[in-house]
Amino acid sequence: MACRLALVLALDVSSSVDADEDRLQRLGLSAALLDPEVQEAFLAGRDPVAIAIYEWSGRYNQITIQPWRLIRSEADLLIVSNRIATSRRAHDDFPTAVGYALGHAASVLRDGPDCLFQTIDVSGDGINNEGFGPTEAYAHFPLAGVTVNGLVIDAGDYEDPDRLIGFYMDEVRQGPGSFVEVANGFEDFERAMRRKLLRELQSQMIGARPIGDGDGAG
Q1: Residue 217: which of 203, 196, 189, 197 has the closest Cα?
Q2: Could you tell me the CA-to-CA distances from 101 to 118, 132, 215 in Å, in that order?
Q3: 159: pLDDT confidence band, cut at 50, 70 and 90?
Q4: Which of 15, 11, 113, 91 is nearest to 54 (CA)?
Q5: 83 Cβ partners below 8 Å, 6+ apart?
Q6: Is 9 within 8 Å of 52 (Cβ atoms)?
Q7: 54-100 tens-digit pLDDT
Q8: Which of 66, 157, 149, 80 lies closest to 108 in space, CA to CA?
């Protein structure tokens, strides 16, 4: 079956994310998937969108939350939303290995459906502090032509928010039409995720304009 977009969502569960923040992240994504505009964007095309979701933290700590699923109906989105809402993090004590998270995303895409476009979403509240970084990941994994967008969670406890946003803008963001969305804390995660999903889904529709302006931060 034809597929218009393979969408991989990567959620940060590193040690800087506490239990309440992790819950806000999961419930925010769960709710964003059921937003009427987001549902309409998922289902607007003739061909379906495929989605896969995993959590990430340290070098070898990437755990699947939602395996690949083709979204053909609102019922499919409800199933994915419920799975996210009822999921529990596997680890809470590992650092932030963004390069390894991107490497894992490459393997997820490799094992996924053959879609016209491929997009990776990386959510996070900190910069890389373990292992190789995004630059090395892009040099060594088959991610050419893949759009990588970032969702920066500015929770107010990072020592230099501009550096955090700059890291995502300069090192994580990659590929055609890529951009960075910023959530003003985990309480704002649902709004930021909803906006990001709309922008990603609508940008792949013929004649549609992405929400926001240009390739910068949203």
Answers
A1: 196
A2: 16, 10, 22
A3: low
A4: 11
A5: 65, 66
A6: yes
A7: 999 999 999 999 999 999 999 999 999 999 999 999 999 999 999 99
A8: 66
